[in-house]
Amino acid sequence: MNLADVLRFASVSLAGARTRTLLMVAAMSIGVASVVVLTSLGEGARRYVMGQFSSLGSNLVIVLPGRSETTGGTPGMLLGETTRDLTLDDALSLTRSRAIRRIAPLNVGSALVSTHRRNREAPVLGSTADMLPIRHMSMGQGRFLPGGDPRQATPVCVLGAKVKSELFGAQPAVGEWLRIGDRRFRVVGILASQGQSMGFDTDELVIVPVASAQMLFNTSSLFRILIEARSREDIVRAKQDAEDILAKRHEGERDVTVITQDAILATFDRILRALTLAVGGIAAISLAVAGILIMNVMLIAVSQRTQEIGLLKALGAAPRQIRQLFFAEAAVLSFAGAVAGLILGALGSYIIGRIYPVLPTTPPWWAVLAAFGTALATGILFSVAPARRAARLDPVESLARH
């Protein structure tokens, strides 16, 4: 009996018990589909987060006040210490590094923004002209903040698309005056609509010069300093230069935290990959359950097919060939279940992608191969016991049972 004969015999046997076959194929396909859908969700979440961080800019280094390493949390807060403020002069001193191309000091607050008829509360971001290229923003109308000395509190502002729409409606806003808090600003530009990035809706932003923001919020400290290194190779040097320069300005004390965009991306990548593997592993448990189901059903089938097995042995079939027949049935079942599961998983991922279009739910190739291989291996592994029991049957006793 060659391989083709074995597969033909197994197919005929499975076709003769359609209900049993369909149940086992369904069990296996559900397990494979679960692995594909859950890993595609995990991979989609990973790609989404990576994309969000990448959209913040390229070759990015971020300076935060305080040392996160000394507290394990918000710098200085857990020990009741007051972190040293980052100042505008600190930010400007960083431009001495040859590895740094641009800097964008940031001040963040919230204020009432009003025109002569309408008003709304809006997040106000203070920065400089270099924020536009660093954050890869684009203008819809007008121009961005003017260049020049960041210490000058020029009364100009740039509106997000949603803020402009709510305050000015269809009327042109560029050149108009509005009030932010207790100060008047002239609108010089409107940001192109860019939606949310890392949970921050740029369409609702109002951007003013950093010195104006410090006067508006009555503070001299900065929230962050964004640094753009000259190239990817200069990121490490830019980070080191930023730490050294600020340490010299702070009497030798390294009291700031400097993190790179690559470090953040690598951390999230590791966490989300581990999460994807974990949910894939949990889903793979259902494949083991399907394998146990196949084993139980095949053990019952051996009891029901003793006469058939006895007849095969009486005709000269060796125990090895009987085992091959049962292995072939398990392989055919597992293959059919795996293929059906992959189709179901791909369909489920597609539907989820249509419901949540921001989530790229393409299943990773390794999950597809792993699910397919695990389904085949599980089915064949759990068919060992039924195959051995069938091979050990005595032909005379088997034929005498009926």
Task: Provide keyphrases for this structure.
alpha+beta; two-stranded antiparallel sheet; about 400 residues; about 55% helix; single chain; 2 domains; six-stranded mixed beta barrel
Question: Describe it for me?
Answer:
- This protein is of the alpha+beta class.
- It folds into two domains: 3-51 and 266-400, no CATH class; 84-254, no CATH class.
- 53% of the residues lie in helices and 17% in strands.
- It contains 13 helices and twelve strands.
- The protein has helices at 3-15, 18-54, 88-93, 131-134, 161-168, 210-216, 235-249, 261-304, 306-314, 319-355, 365-381, 384-392, 395-400; strands at residues 60-65, 100-114, 119-127, 139-142, 156-159, 177-180, 183-191, 196-197, 200-201, 206-209, 224-229, 256-260.
- The strands form two sheets. It has a six-stranded mixed barrel.
- Helix 10 packs antiparallel against helix 12 (384-392).
Largest sheet: 6 strands, mixed, barrel
What's the N-to-C terminus distance?
26 Å
- Radius of gyration, Cα only, in angstroms? 33 Å
How much of the residues is beta strand, in percent? 15-25%
Which structural class do you get from the secondary structure elements?
alpha+beta
> Percent helix among the residues?
40-55%
Give the strand tally.
Answer: 12
- Secondary-structure element series: HHEHEEHEEHEEEEEHEHEHHHHHH
Spatial order of the strands in the main sheet? 2-3-10-5-7-6
What form results from the Cα inertia axes?
elongated
- Estimate the mean pLDDT confidence: 83
Number of domains: 2
- In DSSP terms (H or I, runs of 4 or more residues), the helix count works out at 13
Oligomer: single chain
Low-confidence stretches: 70-80
